[in-house]
Design goal:
Two copies of one chain form a homodimer.
Chain A: E1 8-12, H1 20-29, E2 34-40, E3 59-62, E4 70-74, H2 78-90, E5 96-103, H3 110-113, H4 115-125, E6 130-135, H5 145-160, E7 169-174, E8 184-187, E9 193-203, E10 209-219, H6 227-232, E11 235-240, H7 248-257
Parallel strand pairs in A: 1-2, 1-5, 2-4, 5-6, 6-7, 8-11
Antiparallel strand pairs in A: 3-4, 7-11, 9-10
């Protein structure tokens, strides 16, 4: 049972509950509090902030991380997992929500598509301090050892900071290099970057066309305080994220122009 | 064929290509330019910014809106539809992207979960001026006549405004009342509101538990320039939306505290 003073740490991800990334995240923080894992039963990369509306969800308790770590797999999206965890498993808000460690980058515009970051954002909307971690290596056999050390550096700091932001949410990306090559941890802004999409058009055995999404990542942001800039120089990037999407500059312009009388 | 001077208007939605909302949107703007519809073949509400990574996509050309309107249904998400439209159907950026008219509200925090708004955001990321329209009536038989008039008021204004914002994106919500009761169109900010989730727990015929997502909408934002405030008073709300999610206030605080040395 949980010691009453130890923090409750909710862990989720989008790669699925059996992925090395989430196992490494659990290992990194399991001595910092009571860890509860609620994660999808299948890969959910690119699910963004999807929720399950038209069909019901299932949950199964599993022993995947040893007896000290309560773990549930669900049939839902990463966002569903956070909702289920708070309402049906913890019956309270955890002290922190950690999402990841994602296999692959979630810097710049990826924050929009990422199931990892959407789960973390869902927790932040609820007022739970929340951090998404991503390693810039999508391979199953990626080396998560440096990432574990980064997690152990960042999480205790955030657990101690009670009043930084009511909806604290951080997007942490970690370069795929040995620990000794990591230059430090940099607070950054989200780079303006996007994918140049090209669909790979193919013909199936029934002679019908089908399309695979492919795309080349392009960074259009030349400023030196972006996450892409920091990662290219082997810094860990930390972007504080918000869910108020109002474009206040454009709001002012529209009000001044009074277009919609 | 398209007149060379008339704008190309890309239309998509998240309710599926056969829904009354998209039909009404097409009707409202089909005299303003060359309309091309690329929309999902099944409901995709709540899909957020999901993209299809692990499986291929299909497209079918259909005659659903008369001979003057090119229309394609796809097996993808709303965001996939925009990507496919630009890369495989239009082979260029349209002059504007319109998404909706959604059956149901997308004000306040709904912008995060909404497939309608994510499709519009995807276009805005590409630099295509984009507007999502939503009617506060989720019923199939909702009255879209006032919404059509609102669309006809807003779209020509935005087509004329070339330099308001490189990534212009508007979230338009329309109250479900007769036209004469609509008080006007108000530029607003996104209200801080959220759902108090409660999962409805049930037992299936095999005696296993399953869960339906339910939730009560709660507005925590008391300010008078929010979309929720405007809609409650029968104004159409227009929230300018951005995809730079950086929380600059928190960024400054974190830099000052220098937590991650």
């Amino acid at each position: 049972m949980a010691n009453k003073n130890e923090p409750v740490i909710l862990i989720t991800n989008d790669d699925d509950i059996t992925s090395p990334g989430i196992r490494n995240l659990v290992e990194a923080v399991k001595n910092m509090g009571k860890v509860v894992v609620v994660a999808p039963d299948k890969p959910q990369s690119g699910m963004g902030h999807a929720i399950t509306i038209g069909s019901p969800l299932r949950m199964n308790k599993m022993n995947l991380f040893g007896n000290d770590v309560e773990a549930w797999q669900t049939t839902g999206t990463p966002v569903d997992c956070v909702k289920l965890a708070v309402d049906k498993i913890l019956h309270r808000k955890p002290d922190i929500c950690l999402s990841g460690i994602n296999h692959g980058a979630n810097h710049s515009i990826n924050v929009i598509y990422s199931g990892t970051m959407s789960a973390a954002m869902e927790a932040a909307i609820e007022g739970i301090p929340s951090i998404g971690f991503s390693l810039l290596d999508y391979r199953y056999e990626a080396d998560f050892e440096p990432s574990r050390q980064i997690v152990q550096k960042i999480v205790p700091q955030i657990l101690q900071q009670k009043n930084l932001d009511k909806h604290l949410l951080l997007n942490v990306n970690i370069p795929s290099v040995p620990m000794k090559e990591i230059k430090g941890i940099k607070v950054c802004k989200q780079a303006y970057a996007k994918y140049d999409e090209e669909f790979d058009e193919r013909i199936d055995p029934q002679k019908k066309k089908y399309y695979w999404l492919t795309g080349e990542f392009k960074n259009f942001d030349k400023s030196k305080d972006t996450d892409v800039w920091a990662l290219q120089r082997n810094y860990v990037s930390v972007v504080p994220v918000q869910f108020d999407l109002t474009n206040y500059t454009l709001k002012q312009k529209l009000e001044k122009k009074n277009l919609f009388k």
